[in-house]
Amino acid sequence: MDDLFPPFAPEPNEPKPRRFKPVPVRMIIPNMITLMAVCLGLTAVRFGFEGKFEPAVIAIIAAAVLDGVDGRVARLLKGTSRFGAELDSLADFVNFGCAPALILYTFVLHNLKSLGWIVALIFAIAMALRLARFNVMLDDPNRPEWKKDFFVGMPAPAGALTVMLPLYLHFLGFEMVPSLAPVALIYMLVIALLVISTVPTFSGKTIGKRVPREYVLPIFVVTVAAFGLLISFPFEILALLSIGYLVAIPIGAAQYRRKLKAEAAQGPSLPSDEAPAA
């Protein structure tokens, strides 16, 4: 009978090992900023459905600002991660692909019925393809350093802010009547093609790493003046920036071609281990 009921020794009260490692706060903060941007993009869609187009545009602009902040905060806090990169791409698709397409469809493209919806779909899908291509190009180890000054095609935030030019003009008094819906449709289709094109556009990422001391105070004054103008005349400034950006695309492409020809004239550079000794 003793074999049927062997003595039982209780386990020691040792803490169980954790299955998951704790995540540092510095890794969470950039992702929280990205999620706030997604909330703004979805709220912009809601405002668009309710006919509140001015708050919808402001929400997308705020989402674009947060999109520019989250990556820099991640690099500053050393909190970059693959999860954050994928979340940022999904957020860009919602904020800069789906939200502008739905807002413009609700604003004017619905007058063209199915044709307007098809172009809205084309814009959203073009933005998804552009973001996928951007993620693939980041993994290219053979990309020359000077090419970091250029994007391939129109970047997602610029495409979203530029495609809303009909809304800016409407807020400035140019009434977007149903007869102008085909013009808005063609314009949106052109922006979608620029987004997925291989036209090089200037990125400006490497500008301002070092600023001469004598330029610091003028830069402060110009920044304050630009911010004041944007607050006082938001849609006038947005319309001018959109038109100026479109005009600057050929200039950036010409500069890209000049640098490409200069690189071809120099010939392929030797790797460091094969370079001739001095």
From TrEMBL:
GO terms for biological process: phospholipid biosynthetic process. The chain crosses the membrane at residues 28-47, 90-109, 115-138, 150-171, 183-203, 215-231, 237-256. InterPro entries: CDP-alcohol_PTase-I, CDP-diaglyc--ser_O-PTrfase, CDP-OH_P_trans, CDP-OH_P_trans_C, CDP-OH_PTrfase_TM_dom, CDP_ALCOHOL_P_TRANSF_CS. It catalyses: a CDP-1,2-diacyl-sn-glycerol + L-serine = a 1,2-diacyl-sn-glycero-3-phospho-L-serine + CMP + H(+). One of its GO terms (molecular function) is CDP-diacylglycerol-serine O-phosphatidyltransferase activity. It is an enzyme of class 2 (transferase). Keywords: Lipid biosynthesis, Lipid metabolism, Membrane, Phospholipid biosynthesis, Phospholipid metabolism, Transferase, Transmembrane, Transmembrane helix. Its EC number is 2.7.8.8. GO terms for cellular component: endomembrane system; membrane. Residues 214-250 form the CDP-alcohol phosphatidyltransferase C-terminal domain. It is found in: Endomembrane system. It is a multi-pass membrane protein. Gene3D superfamilies: 1.20.120.1760. Belongs to the CDP-alcohol phosphatidyltransferase class-I family. This is CDP-diacylglycerol--serine O-phosphatidyltransferase.
